[in-house]
Design a protein that fits this description.
methyltransferase activity; 7-stranded mixed beta sheet; SAM-dependent_MTases_sf; two-stranded antiparallel sheet; methyltransferase; globular; alpha/beta; single chain; about 240 residues; DNA methylase; transferase
């Protein structure tokens, strides 16, 4: 794994993070706020992504960076591979629509490539995904957000103390099984059924650079990436000092 001194790029220059399966840049924005320069890669066209961005297959691009040695530009890699394969939200809630059985599992090949980078990394997945270690779980209430949005993270080559899970203040607003519930959180997924408007989603997630619902509902709140990025840099600084 990269040693702590490897991420120093000179005075005033930010260490770089590679944001793989970047979507619209929720995680990347958080890493940028924490002090990283960010490069993204996603197979879909993401014109709202706020940082330098490569459009293409994420795993092919990551393999290219490894083979050419360009991966050494980076201090850290964040990966959010698609989560639909065997996710309980897919094979359970959406089973009647025939989803969940045909999606390709990208977690294992992503992890294999990340291990080859020799860099510290993180793999993010939502609740209901059993194929990663839950080294870290973050929730919107930890950051005073208007979404719960539990996300689990597997840490490769580094570790961090797990923060306590803060009690939720109430329910997620909207219809569920024919009954309407009010509460301090909005449902950051899907459409209809009392789901929030795009401005409400933007405010709840802390995202203001995209107004595309699909991007908002797939995004990681930037507060999560900022917390992880600051924790990584703090741990690195301690290692350098030691």
């Amino acid at each position: 794994m990269t040693q702590p001194t490897d991420i120093r790029r000179g005075r005033g220059e930010r260490p770089r993070v590679l944001d793989v399966f970047s979507c619209a840049g929720g995680a990347g924005a958080g890493y940028h706020r924490a002090g990283f320069a960010v490069d993204g890669v996603d197979i879909a066209d993401r014109p709202n992504y706020p940082f330098p961005y490569h459009r293409g297959d994420a795993l092919t691009y990551l393999a290219h960076l490894i083979v050419t040695g360009e991966i050494r530009r980076y201090a850290f890699v964040h990966a959010s591979p698609p989560c639909q394969d065997k996710c309980t939200l897919t094979v359970g809630t959406n089973a009647s629509q025939g989803w969940g059985g045909t999606h390709v599992d990208l977690v294992e090949p992503t992890r294999a490539l990340l291990d080859r980078t020799g860099l510290p990394y993180i793999i993010e997945q939502p609740n209901g995904r059993a194929k990663i270690r839950k080294d870290l779980t973050l929730c919107g209430e930890m950051f005073g957000l208007g979404v719960i949005r539990h996300r689990n993270f597997e840490l490769g080559g580094w570790s961090v103390n797990r923060p306590a899970h803060v009690a939720h203040r109430g329910r997620v607003r909207g219809w569920r099984h024919g009954e309407y519930f009010d509460g301090p959180y909005v449902a950051a997924y899907g459409n209809g059924g009392g789901k929030p408007s795009v401005p409400e989603l933007q405010a709840a997630m802390g995202i203001d650079w995209t107004d595309v619902r699909e991007e908002l509902t797939e995004a990681i709140p930037p507060a999560y990436g900022e917390w992880i990025g600051r924790a990584f840099l703090a741990r690195t600084a301690q290692g350098v000092a030691a």
